[in-house]
Fold:
Amino acid sequence: MSNIVVIMQTDTDQIGKAVIIKWPHVLILKRSMQLEKFPGEWDLAGGHTIEGEDPLDGVLREVWEETGLVLSNPEKLYSDGRETYYKVIVNSEQEVRLSNEHEEYVYATPDEIESYELPDKYLKAIRYALKDILA
Structure:
């Protein structure tokens, strides 16, 4: 008989979000209607770090859990309160595989982003991430 060990991991209040750019598109996700917090809202990939986890490792883990994407070379954009935003340019043909946290995804152009009713804090991060590309 084998023993199963369950390790409880505690989320911190720190959040990492990724602006994932596959030029000329930005990846946005629609939160599942079954979620308690912000059901049906458009979102950026990412989430809470775990106790003792490096913030960058946390955002990479969260993005992988939510989308199946393995990111490399994320660039920290800025922190605002307990949220830190990163920019990642994706050149590969990795396929998005959504977790149960999201029910839809879109690679939207900068012009289309406004029509998805993202929270202002995410629009700000997207604009900041794209400022050098659009200049």
The radius of gyration is 15 Å. The mean pLDDT is 90. The first helix runs from residue 55 to 67. The helical segments are 55-67, 110-113, 120-134.
